[in-house]
Amino acid sequence: MPLLRIENLTKSFGRLEVLHETNLDVRDQETVVIIGASGSGKTTLLRCVNYLEWPTTGGIYLKGEPIGGKPGAPGKPWTPLPDDVVSMQRRDFGFVFQRFNLFPHLTALDNVAIGPNKVLGVSRQDARARAAEYLDKVFLSEHVNKRPNELSGGQQQRVAIARALAMEPTVMLFDEPTSALDPELVQEVLDVIEWLSESGMTTMIVTHEMRFAAQAADRVIYVDHGYIVEEGPPRDIFTAPKEARTKQFLTHFKYVFED
User: Fold this and answer.
1) From the centroid of its chain, how far is CA 235?
2) How far apart, in Å, are the Cα atoms of 193 and each of 77, 121, 167, 196, 243?
3) Strand locations in 138-255 (E)
4) Running DSSP on this structure, what letter comes out for residue 111?
5) Nearest 5°: CA angle at 223, between 221 and 226?
6) pLDDT tens digits, the chain, 259 residues: what are they?
7) Where are the alpha helices (DSSP H) in 16-62?
8) Which of 14, 48, 172, 219 stands 20 to 30 A from 143 (CA)?
9) Cα three-residue angle 131-134-139, rounded to 5 degrees
């Protein structure tokens, strides 16, 4: 059984259907990188996984259990679960956004500690100890007492990653985590994400950083106009794509694989 299953998922905004009958399994400890042009449905897919966007039909299973609602007839909406149940289920997913969304008045330490303390009920002392541990893991132990405006963009994004990790999720979701960064700061964030993947965390990553996708992914998913067009190991996707749309998308990219 896959750790995460996306089954017959569709998502519409009004009359516009942006995801079409999407099916995807993610294995435990797998790193899945989702690529595609802007507007192809990548972010919507990621946001549906933890019900930041409510799927129109189909649904999501984690460890075989439905997330967000109870299955209905094929092609029909699910019966929603109560909001408090969905909020509890969301704790299994850490989400790192394009923007850092840190509390400007709190230090890095307290930005990370606030979730375990307020949401999980961990004592303030233990939450701060946990925060310090995760900030150390993302190489920010020397900056725990700084506020966001005292940190670079790359450091702020690493605080955001530590904040998600401190909730000890089952799956980490990254939505273009480097898109708001200056080019010289991108690699420090990608290094943390790659370390996280290598450590065994199950991750789904939407990115335009193709070299990173080629090097870090266990599997690459190419999405176009709301459809999963092609998926496979990075070497297959980047050096020998089978679908014409994938080949066209990758025309301007070059990759270096270490043998």
Assistant:
1) 22
2) 34, 27, 16, 5, 29
3) 171-175, 202-206, 219-224, 227-232
4) H
5) 140
6) 899 999 999 999 999 999 999 999 999 999 999 999 989 999 999 999 988 998 888 889 999 999 988 766 666 667 888 889 988 999 999 999 888 889 999 999 999 999 999 999 999 999 999 999 999 999 999 999 999 999 999 999 999 999 999 999 999 999 999 888 888 888 889 899 989 988 999 999 999 989 889 888 999 999 999 999 999 999 999 999 999 999 999 987 766 565 5
7) 42-49
8) 172
9) 120
- Block residue for tokens 């200056």: 182
What type of residue is 110?
D
Instruction: Give burial (CB, 10 Å; 0-12/13-18/19+) of 236.
Output: middle
Tokens of 250: 């990758």
Both tokens of 106, joined, read 């709190």
Tokens encoding 85: 């149940």
Question: What is this structure's pTM?
Answer: 0.93
User: Do the beta carbons of residue 170 and residue 3 sit within 8 Å?
Assistant: yes
d(CA 199, CA 201): 6
CA 214/CA 61 separation, integer angstroms: 27
Nearest to 96 by CA among 17, 174, 191: 174
As a whole number of angstroms, the distance between CA 147 and CA 78 comes to 42
